[in-house]
Amino acid sequence: MKEILNSTRVRFLALGENEGFARIVTAGFLMNLGVTPSLLADIKTMVSEAVTNSIVHGYRGMDGRKNYLFLELRFYSDRMLVITVADRGRGIENVEKAMEPFYTTDREGERSGMGLPIMQAFSDSMKLVSKPGFTKVTMRKKLP
Amino acid sequence: MNILTAEKNGELIVRVTGDIDHHSALGLREEIDEKMEEIRPSRLLLDLGGTDFMDSSGLGLILGRLRKAGEMKIPMTLLNPSEAILKLLHLAGLEKTLDIRYL
What we know:
heterodimer, A: Heat Shock Protein 90, 5-stranded antiparallel beta sheet, B: alpha/beta, Transcription Regulator spoIIAA, 6-stranded mixed beta sheet
């Protein structure tokens, strides 16, 4: 049976500057796991997209200094990495629509609408649960 | 994130170093657009050779500048994107529509 070899959970304010912080936490977590630079770039991108979605969409119009999001990283004995990002924001109105490439509710902000499709393409599997007041995305990636 | 701009033979070269994410993209967008309006270059060259990280916000930035340059009838070239950036461009189907060069 697979067991957890390492795990971390961080809670931080929904501020743009924390996008970089989340990537650094992820890179630190993966430091001794023999991840290639190319795979590390993919995983950092997955985390960056998820965290940005929470900040930009989840907490849109809300004060980032009063709202938190959560990043959890778990590494299992079968070398599965499980990344979870959750927020207590607005929720995604139409998850199916949000998954479509180039679909964005924020044209003005020059969002490309590629965040969720990239997260999906870079993970082995992705699960998105959303309702008003809560959104959680879980991405799995088997490390070599 | 740092941005360096230079003019050479009427062309505008913008070199971005550091990370391009949602947080940094807005400042970059404003700075590049301002410079384009100011000098009206014959070409916009966006040099990503010093960019350590880029996510889909960078795709938005590139698409936005491509649109803006198109409106101003200025051709745009992407210089020195890394393998990771090329992968994102490929996923977005932009790899073949953009003029990409390595110097």
